[in-house]
């Protein structure tokens, strides 16, 4: 059935993805309702931090929110005394996004709705979005821009009680950081990627003087950005269809032009490369190559790397490869048994708090999000072929639904590299064009 074009488009999720899409639609004269129940509309998870220590991990020159306007963020950063090849504070980027959202709202084309969506159904030619307070709205089209899901809960910590911080972005995590600063006990970070780096920075900048253990299977931590001579490649010169061949190419090319130049030269080709892998090859990538890919591809600002290096050299931060065996809450804290990689015997340590830094949930099947659950259960969306996001077509339409799109991390099964601003802004512009086409069809 045709949609009621007098209704707005409902965008669920007010992080970077939803915000820039609403602004893109406003530029096209299309009305939208931007829905976010977390109080973070215009910021989302990544840019809600107010901590000066939390820097962007992409240079200012790469952080424009607008497709086709490369300088949009960098010129603002420069005007404030920053450098285009520098790394702004994430809260500075949040202000930039807020201005974009304010302008879109002022245009009269965007309405903000501070509510959590718990269900959505299409009937009688429109979407009906329902909220946790029992209210609902109608919409011509629906966009899911709900970002990453909370990390998977870890079985070893099932009886860890209040010492276990399952969501490193929540209020419990902030309270745990404060208690650690006051008490000075030890902290365990499970996971050694970008989330671990954020928690370490929070602890360090709050004045924490205790001992931090960061542990993951391989103990790989994000590498630092540094200047290099770019070495662009043509798509035809990169092997497609095989993880092994791609890896071999990266090693050889890295040996000639440097690993940063080699890995960054794949950026323009990353979606085509991912899509050239069949399901088994994509699974192989996720199983074996992903930890290496992530730490080399998603690098941290040199200043941030400097803090990590300093803490390691002072013996205050230990980054290790190993496996958690058990975690038990005791009178003195959380007793954790773990085995270091290649160690014959397990080790035991007591921590005041342990943080889940394993990164976003990577399995649609395990989602606890009521909105996603209801859409999945009613067959209006379905998991992608890897089960890590939603199945979408080449226009980011969610397969199974009518006038339904997904944006950002939810679409990683199709694109893989669709979590950072430079990728999402292009997707948002394309989806806005598609919405304009479909609604006017
Ligand atoms: C800590 C961190 C730092 C990052 N730093 C950078 C960086 O420096 N540079 C870069 O390019 N990328 C960075 N990224 C990656 C990237 O910018 C984010 O992944 C991107 O912002 C994703 O935005 P999003 O809007 O899709 O998701 P989110 O930011 O997660 O926003 C989704 C929003 O949807 C809301 N929501 C969810 N479900 C519902 C519901 N049912 N009803 C209503 N609202 C709902 C949530 O409350 C949330 O506010 C970072 C990511 C993180 C996590």
What does this structure look like?
The chain is of the alpha/beta class and 441 residues long. 35% of the residues lie in helices and 18% in strands. The chain has a seven-stranded mixed sheet. Strands 3-2-1-7-15 form a five-stranded parallel sheet. A hairpin with a 2-residue loop joins strand 11 and strand 12. Helix 1 (16-27) runs parallel beside helix 3 and helix 1 (16-27) crosses helix 13 (421-440). The mean pLDDT is 96. The protein binds flavin-adenine dinucleotide. Flavin-adenine dinucleotide is lined by residues 12-18, 35-38, 40, 44-46, 56-58, 116-117, 145-148, 198, 371, 408-409, 419-421.
Protein traits:
441 residues, alpha/beta, seven-stranded mixed sheet, five-stranded parallel sheet, 13 helices, 15 strands, 18% strand, binds flavin-adenine dinucleotide
SSE-based structural type: alpha/beta
Shape: globular
Which residues form runs of ≥5 with pLDDT under 50?
Answer: none
Mean pLDDT: 96
